[in-house]
UniProtKB/TrEMBL annotation, chain B:
Protein name (database record): ABC transporter permease
Domain ABC transmembrane type-1, residue spans: 94-303
Entry annotated with the keyword RNA-binding: no
Stretches that traverse the bilayer: 9-29, 98-121, 133-153, 173-194, 234-260, 280-306
Bilayer disposition of the protein: Multi-pass membrane protein
Length: 310, 312
């Protein structure tokens, strides 16, 4: 890639100056790369913003009982559909439940589903991708199965699987995971296939290193960077799909407050009481945005070739 | 060319077989579809009766082969609730969904490609950053959230468009499009983000090519360089992503139709899910997957239109 104004982001300027400044420290202030967490975050503002917002949401989910909430499932017909006020910050829904408490507790479902799906889909997809990339006779068969799964629009597949199981958080995780696995498997297989052509892998094979050792020592570490980025995007999309499933009534059971559920319940009244829909919507959007920003930041950091381009 | 098309068509057969197997098996994801259908109050006798009536008690291989045979003849089975053939139910609901998707497609491509081109042209400036911020928001704000915000602002507050509903094209273009414009923007959000990003990335690469410098040196105007010389050479990745992104439109349509009360396939699916009407769910999933595979096959075949060097 030839250098051009596009390829050299302004963010690298201080680094470039270091080499020039070194022999004459009295001319320019000593600009060392600031170390530690602060320096890392300053060099990667996307990760900083995304990480901060995500930590905030995790805090909300973990400490929901201590943030001025009441029982999110407590019914109270006497105080139905109150507008937001000092007493009910986000108002109450049509059954008199406190929307603020429900939204805060709802963060738990979203985060659990997002993280679980990202983790499980990554691990299973990694295993399938490694085996498929190394065991050639299995590859054709496994990849046709993956092609087939990827030919079903993922949201539709998750909806159908969720509909065919009893509504529970575990089944929602299962449904979304199945839809996400092929993407990880394909990614890992691609990395494995390109790594197999590398001289050091050839050398390892020639010296008689066993395949599991090659996978563990030479292949796996190289898949981690693209996989981490992919896992972040899977987490973001899983949180959206969970909300969609709950919203259309095929996801988290109504007894557990989740952002999709709250929106589904607010749907009938949204033209007169829009706040019931909008508060969970804002929280969901901010959380997904945080995870996406984290993913973009990780991608730029882990894959410098892609940095500042996509 | 003909041999290539034939080869590609044959290659889709194993893929469609896997799709069919997945669609068939997903009914058994819970173990016992009859129990799920019967509800929590059902006695074991009720469940056995339903199981037998719907044929779920026969050997699974036999069921799959018989089901596949009927599907290949165009028979997607009969709805458990309405007793209508699934194909009839799909035919009744297909028009609003196809309209919504086509309007979204045209709108998204029309907005996203120029966005990506301008972002690449002005790379590194605030225009580029603003466009990329819009893109990341498009990925992050779920389709139903965008839908409700648009409906609240432009339909309820400003009263520019109808809040909900659908008017067929046969009743005039203006009512048709005014009902579809808000759902199309909502549905197009992710799609626009996706296309704009890939357009920008590909254009950045193409704009560094020697022929772009040559064109600039001989005095070709900026607009012509961008939209004629560069965009044409960036077309293949963009068109590929437009095809892959159709999956997002299909999934998003289910939700968009719920938000805007559009009586299409999405509503059919949601109703079928709430009633656990498995033949309908299977039929819709199978049909959408088939359409998706065919669209992407056609896009692969269209590459030679954009790049005459590609021959089959």
């Amino acid at each position: 890639m030839s250098a051009s104004t596009i390829e050299v982001p302004q963010g690298d300027a201080p680094q470039g100056r270091v080499a020039v400044a070194a022999p004459m420290p009295d001319v320019l202030p000593p600009m060392r790369r600031i170390g530690g967490v602060v320096g890392f975050l300053r060099r990667n503002p996307t990760i900083a913003v995304g990480g901060f917002l995500l930590l905030l949401m995790i805090g909300v989910a973990v400490f929901a009982p201590f943030l001025g909430t009441v029982d999110p499932t407590a019914l109270s017909p006497a105080r139905r559909t109150r507008e937001p006020s000092a007493m009910y910050w986000f108002g109450t829904d049509m059954l008199g439940r406190d929307v603020y408490s429900r939204v805060l507790y709802g963060a738990r479902v979203s985060l659990i589903v997002g993280f679980s799906v990202a983790l499980i889909a990554s691990v299973i997809g990694l295993a399938i991708g490694l085996v498929s990339g190394f065991v050639r006779w299995l590859d054709w068969f496994v990849m046709r199965v993956m092609d087939g799964l990827m030919s079903i629009p993922p949201i539709l597949l998750a909806i159908a699987l969720a509909a065919a199981t009893r509504g529970s958080v575990q089944n929602v995780i299962f449904a979304i995971t199945v839809a996400e696995i092929p993407r990880v498997a394909r990614l890992v297989r691609g990395v494995v296939l390109s790594l197999r052509e590398q001289p050091y892998v050839d050398a390892a094979i020639t010296t008689g290193t066993r395949v599991p050792v090659i996978m563990w020592r030479h292949i796996l570490p190289n898949t981690l960077a693209p996989m981490t980025v992919q896992a972040t995007y899977i987490c973001a999309s899983a949180m959206i799909v969970e909300a969609i499933l709950s919203f259309i009534g095929a996801g988290t059971p109504p007894t557990t407050p989740s952002w999709g559920n709250i929106m589904a319940e607010g749907r009938a009244l949204w033209q007169v009481k829009p706040y019931i829909v909008f508060f969970p919507a804002i929280f969901l959007s901010i959380t997904v945005l945080a995870v996406n920003l984290l993913g973009d930041g990780l991608r730029d950091m882990l894959d410098p070739r892609m940095a500042k381009r996509v | 060319m003909f041999a290539y098309i034939l080869r590609r068509l044959i290659a889709t057969i194993p893929v469609m077989l896997v799709v069919a197997a997945v669609v068939f098996m997903m009914v058994y994801a819970s173990g016992n579809p009859a129990a799920l259908l019967a509800g929590d109050q059902a006695t074991p006798e009720d469940i056995a009766r339903i199981e037998h009536a719907l044929g779920y008690d026969r050997p699974k291989i036999q069921q799959f082969v018989e089901w596949l045979w009927r599907v290949m003849q165009g028979d997607l089975g009969t709805s458990v609730f309405t007793n209508l053939p699934v194909t009839t139910m799909i035919a009744q609901r297909i028009e609003p969904t196809v309209s919504l998707m086509l309007v979204t497609l045209v709108l998204s491509v029309g907005v996203a490609v120029p966005m990506g081109v301008v972002a690449a042209w002005k790379a590194g400036t605030w225009i580029d950053r603003a466009i990329m911020v819009i893109a990341v928001l498009g990925f992050s704000v779920p389709v139903f959230v965008v839908g409700y915000i648009l409906a609240w602002v432009f339909a309820l507050q400003l009263d520019w468009f109808p809040v909900q509903g659908y008017t067929p094209l046969s009743e005039g273009f203006i009512p048709f499009i005014s009902n579809l414009i808000l759902p199309a923007i909502a549905l197009g959000g992710v799609y626009i983000a996706l296309i704009a990003r890939i357009t920008r990335a590909t254009m950045l690469e193409v704009l560094q090519q020697d022929y772009v410098r040559t064109a600039r040196a001989k005095g070709v105007g900026q607009r012509e360089i961008l939209f004629v010389h560069a965009l044409k050479n960036a077309a293949i990745p963009i068109v590929t992503v437009i095809g892959i992104g159709i999956a997002l439109l299909i999934g998003g349509a289910v939700v968009t139709e719920s938000v805007f009360a559009i009586p299409g396939l999405g509503r059919l699916t949601v109703d079928a899910i709430l009633r656990r009407d498995f033949p309908v769910i299977q039929g819709v999933v199978l049909m959408f997957s088939f359409v998706y595979v065919i669209i992407n096959l056609l896009i692969d075949l269209s590459y030679s239109l954009f790049d005459p060097r590609i021959r089959y």
